[in-house]
Amino acid sequence: MQPKVHQGILNAAGFRFAIVASRWNDFLTSKLVEGALDALERLGASEDAVEIFKVPGSYELPLTALKAAQSGRFDAVIGIGTVIRGETAHFDFVAGEAAKGLAHASMQTGVPILFGVVTTETLEQAINRSGVKSGNKGFEVAMAAIEVVNLHREMDGGEKQPKGKEKVFPHVV
Ligand code: INI
What we know:
The protein has 173 residues and is an alpha/beta fold. The protein has one domain: 3-Layer(aba) Sandwich (Rossmann fold). The chain has five helices and four strands, in the order E-H-E-H-E-H-E-H-H. A four-stranded parallel β-sheet has the order 2-1-3-4, sandwiched between helices. Helix 1 crosses helix 5. The longest helix has 19 residues. The structure holds 5-nitro-6-ribityl-amino-2,4(1H,3H)-pyrimidinedione. 5-nitro-6-ribityl-amino-2,4(1H,3H)-pyrimidinedione binds next to strand 3.
């Protein structure tokens, strides 16, 4: 068996991105936003291709991400926040609603809405995922956004696809 495999390339040129970021735990979420911007810039997004929308907490991410997606101005929306179980009694509500809401907004609009919310047991784990030491989930989620928009563009036939023609997905090995 030699199935066709489709994967998005990592090239952000020509795409527009919205970052919706929570201010809660700002010393960490600001690092995640920095990481996302770093990935977008390094992978070719132009300076005016990214806009940031700030909200009070992760619970507010979904509706704002939905509005950004509905605006038709962005190829992908990146939701960013930090929820730490040890620091919040209502962790499950905030983290759960953020995850569910972002997924729902994405399905509702057909716009990729990425989940860049760090959800951890401890502050130390959150620090470790926010680029303070090394790994940065903001960088990773922006890469995922770039990959997905490229994959979807290919699946939609790309810009060169003549209208009314059947979609043929090129074979990527
Ligand atoms: N929001 C977060 O993004 N992270 C948290 O850890 C958090 N805690 O700990 O409560 C948090 N709460 C605020 C919440 O997201 C809303 O902004 C608030 O409930 C108002 O709707």
